[in-house]
Amino acid sequence: MEQTTVRDIVRATGGVLLAGDPGEPLENVSIDSRAMKGRDLFVPLIGEHSDAHDYLAQAIENGAVLVLSSRKMEPLPGAAWIQVDDTLKALQAVGRDYRNRMGIPVVGVTGSVGKTTTREMTATVLGAKFRVFKTSKNFNSDIGLPVTMTEMTKEDEIAVLEMGMSDFGEMEVLSSMARPSAAIITNIGVAHIEQLGTQENILREKLKITVGLENGGTLILNGDDAFLRTVDESIGFHRMFYGFGENCQYRAEDMVITGAGTEFTSVCGAKRVRVHLPVMGKHMVMNALAAMAAASIWGVSMEEAAEALEGFAGFRNRQQIYEVKDYRVIDDTYNASPDSMKAALGVLSGMETEGKKIAVLANMLELGEDSRRFHYEVGYYAKEIAPDVLICIGELAAEIGRGVSEAGGKNTVIKCFDTKEEALPFLKEQAGRGDLILFKGSNSMKLGELIDDLRDE
Q1: Do 133 and 108 form a contact (C-beta atoms < 8 A)?
Q2: Which residues partner with 323 through β-bridges?
Q3: Phi, psi at residue 427, to the nearest 5°?
Q4: Contact, 286 vs 242, CB < 8 A?
Q5: Do 427 and 348 lie in a common domain?
Q6: How many domains does the chain have?
Q7: Is 79 within the bounds of a domain?
Q8: 22-72, pLDDT tens digit by residue?
Q9: Quick one: which residues bind ATP (predicted)?
């Protein structure tokens, strides 16, 4: 934080200063009592199984100069102390106030899949003209977003903020904090359908990103998505569609996947520019189109955007391709949903290799009561692009194997295992010179550990 004092926090939260100097300067916000960066505001959050108020003394000892508290207690010595009604709402108020004081334009990014890559590509393209602040790591929740926004500086000229939601009402809170100038919605899939019930509900909740959208703001939508393309002028904001369809203002044509990445022609009106992405797949083209559309609002030309995207190197655990021994690995282990699983299988199918193509697929979680059907549909979808060897890990992932088998994937060797440890010997046996191996599953399935095991062998 810059130019922020205890007094600013009192004003933003509506809290009561019980101890300390109102003019005390602050530089950072922490929600972890063990991790202080210097001159920190510590916000103790109350979770389902713990209450960080129990660690106020530890936070002060580790360097916090200001703490918030919703617990009625005597202030502890060593730091300024603000009494608030609710520490989470106070944290959000701090983030909102700081974002308002910085006053820079914000691009908000949400969607069922592709948020992080779209965020990174948008920041890359805007970086052709501006100093860009962007969400770090996956700090995109009602807790992570306000902390992230307090890291903006006066040197930043524009921000790209990822906004993730998993339940009703969350997007409204995020949007009211971020107050985006433009908002990208990448797609409406089935991620978090366990909580939200239907894709129609997911659409309604995602569209609440408009709650905080500035007057005159732009909504950038995937025009190929069956749900998003139904969003009409009644939404009340300028709409910009992107995709492969004729209905899209930013459109991709002539896509080719090469050994070095993906090429396509970006079309907007009469303008046509060839784009070379060093990452694989149609879904990456969609992410790039969203980024180009957003950047165009601030005057970044298609040529400038295309040049910037040539340097896009991807993001850790999201289709990173690298050598392990004498074969290649596609590390897509960060997370998984049906749409992203299909996209990853498409990338595997489209890449050339001297040896076998192997897919190691694990459970996709938080898909609700239709979870088995979603897994089966991934397998059935993959009948034309099924790998030479399919290794399924977990009870749900076994449905992917069943889908491939029942769809007619008779040339695919399919093996199912309950755990990654059980799968490892078979994987080691199969992996050979010139092979290409895709790893994809929900983050909690920890497929990255399998890659580490192969490296360490």
Answers
A1: no
A2: 328
A3: -60, -45
A4: yes
A5: yes
A6: 3
A7: yes
A8: 999 999 999 999 989 999 999 999 998 899 999 999 999 999 999 999 999
A9: 111-117
